[in-house]
Amino acid sequence: MDERHDFERQWKEWSETEPKLDERGLRRELLERLPEKRSNRTTRLVLVAAAASTLALLIGYESLRQPAPPPVEASEMVYETGPNVILVLREGAEPIYIVTEPSTRDAGE
Prior knowledge:
The chain is α+β, with helices and mostly antiparallel strands.
């Protein structure tokens, strides 16, 4: 019990004393702890560089990406009706007949 009493007495003495502050030392230590402005600029430059790199990667990715092929309409059918005639049938439209030139292969026959 004597140790507790001794601790309480020391605590009471300490709490009643005036603090001894070295104001000059505190100001000096405070100024040393403040960050320099250069490190803040460096941080900003690093963030800007990272953002620019990310943007460049995204632009490169988008420019190299292959677009999806257009959908093939199943409503269009192509038939070869003769040696020089092609018939194209489309849904909701009139049929188209396409006449081609005779091939040189067939000319000798």
